[in-house]
Amino acid sequence: MSDVQLIEVGPRDGLQNEQTLLSVDEKVEFIGRAVDAGVRRVEAVSFVNPRRVPQMAGAEEVMERVPRLDGVSYIGLVLNRRGLDRALASAVDEVNAVVVATEEFSRRNQGCGVADTIAAAVDVVRDARAAGIATTVTIAVAFGCPFTGEVEPGWISDIVARLADEAAPDEIALADTIGVGVPAQVRDLARRTAERAPGIPQRWHFHNTRNTGYANALTALESGASALDASIGGFGGCPFAPAATGNIASEDLVYALDRSGVTTGIEMQRLVDAAQWLGKALDKDVPALLGRAGAFPAAR
């Protein structure tokens, strides 16, 4: 296996479905703890309507106060031109636009159809590139939809091709938003994506809803992934997807990668400490397992 970037999405996807709302101070501390652990790409904020997703309120204030260090890149999730304007004004380093792959989920999540989300993502990528900002487009519910069921992989590859042809983002991410995917699907989508968007790095986003997230992440890495999303503590979920539980946990993933000889540059114990801090802030048990079992061999 090769080296891989771990993208910490806890400050965004990890918090967006939690009932406890963190303050700006707490969000900044959370991000700082991730950076202190060695994370160098953080999906720090989401520029969405705070009335719809109150957990993401205060994005501008968070970005004003995050630690600005050489080599650390902050990502803002955006859905449209207004979100991009807010992101650019907040001096993000990257933007992540979202295309939802099914009509029903797209209308519930973003209030418009798939074609509209593709067009919006293309516009975001073009305008962000003109502003000198790196771009990712994430294809949500790429493995399955909670409302309409199976998603045809050929349809996902058609979306990939359109994004590559019309926008050519710096990165394409495929997201198992509700945690239904298995490694065979990962291999298939990785192959299709490489064929339809040659030369564009692949990023992958997995949830562990059905206990397949880590197997999927390792399969994506073997299939050529350049980046994997994970969330400290394994917190997270989509507020518009019923029963969508947490992301794969950053510390559990780093353990698997370290033991597999994959370099991440991230200190596992600092992630465990950050997860324990976050669990207290959210008044919830930490879903991740590493903090309970500890590393192996045990530290002396």
Automatic annotation (TrEMBL):
Gene3D superfamilies for this protein: Aldolase class I
Residue ranges of domain Pyruvate carboxyltransferase in the record: 4-272
Database matches in SUPFAM superfamilies: Aldolase (SSF51569)
Alphabetically ordered keywords of this record: Lyase, Metal-binding
Any single biological process term in GO: ketone body biosynthetic process
Annotated family: Belongs to the HMG-CoA lyase family.
UniProt-recorded Gene Ontology molecular function terms: hydroxymethylglutaryl-CoA lyase activity; metal ion binding
Name of this chain's protein: Hydroxymethylglutaryl-CoA lyase
Organism for this UniProt entry: Gordonia lacunae
Superkingdom assignment: Bacteria
Any matching Pfam family: HMGL-like
